[in-house]
Fold this protein.
Amino acid sequence: MKLPVQAGYDPPDEIVAVIRPACFTTSNGKGLEHKYILKDDLEMSMEVRLVCDGKDFHSGDVVIAHRAKPTSRNGFHGLYIFSLREKRAKLFCKAGVYIFSFSVVSI
C-alpha cells in the first residue's frame, strides 16, 4: 500500500503491528479482536528504506532497522511495538520514497 506523506509531516511516536491468521477477513467490521491475533513466540523486524529515485524499491539506504518481540497493551497480547520517538529525526527529512518492510522470524 502506498500512502503519500506531505513535507513537514511528523511521524507517529510508534507503530503497532499484529500478525493475523490466514483465516482472517477484514469484512467482519468488528475491529481488532483477540481471536484474530496470532500469539506465537515470534520476533518481528521493521526496516525503513529511503529510495530517492523512486524506481527500485529493494535498493536504497536503510534509515531505520528495529526488531521487536511480542508484548501486551490494553488487554491485547501479541502486539509488536516499534518506538519511533528517538528515530524521528531520520524519518521524512529527505525527499524520496520511504519503504516500510516487516518480516517475522521464530525465536
In short: The chain has a mean pLDDT of 80. Residues 14-23+32-106 form one domain.
